[in-house]
Design goal:
- By secondary structure, the chain is α+β, with helices and mostly antiparallel strands.
- The protein has a domain at 1-38: YefM-like fold (3-Layer(aba) Sandwich).
- Helix content is 30%, strand content 15%.
- It contains three helices and two strands.
- Strands 1-2 form a two-stranded antiparallel ribbon.
- The chain is elongated, with a radius of gyration of 25 Å.
- The model has no long low-confidence stretch (mean pLDDT 86).
């Protein structure tokens, strides 16, 4: 399918790719891209929550040691 036709039928092309069909879009008669579904990577938010003990308050001023460390001092 060429780019012009793909613009008009994008929703159908996405549905076809999600259904497992191979969708190739051509530019000037040559294959340009392949439309493929994004696989579920299995990532879930909060999966590492048990590793966080304290979330810093980023609006809280730094103490003298933190400030010195940030500014490159010791």
């Amino acid at each position: 399918m060429n780019v012009h036709a793909a613009k008009s039928h994008l929703s159908k092309l996405i549905a076809a790719a999600e259904a497992g069909e191979e969708v190739i879009i051509a530019r000037k008669g040559r294959p340009a891209v392949r439309l493929v579904p994004v696989g579920n990577a299995g990532f879930e938010f909060d999966t590492l929550r048990h590793l966080v003990t304290r979330v810093p308050d980023f609006d809280e001023p730094m103490n003298e040691d933190e400030l010195a460390s940030w500014e490159g001092g010791s």
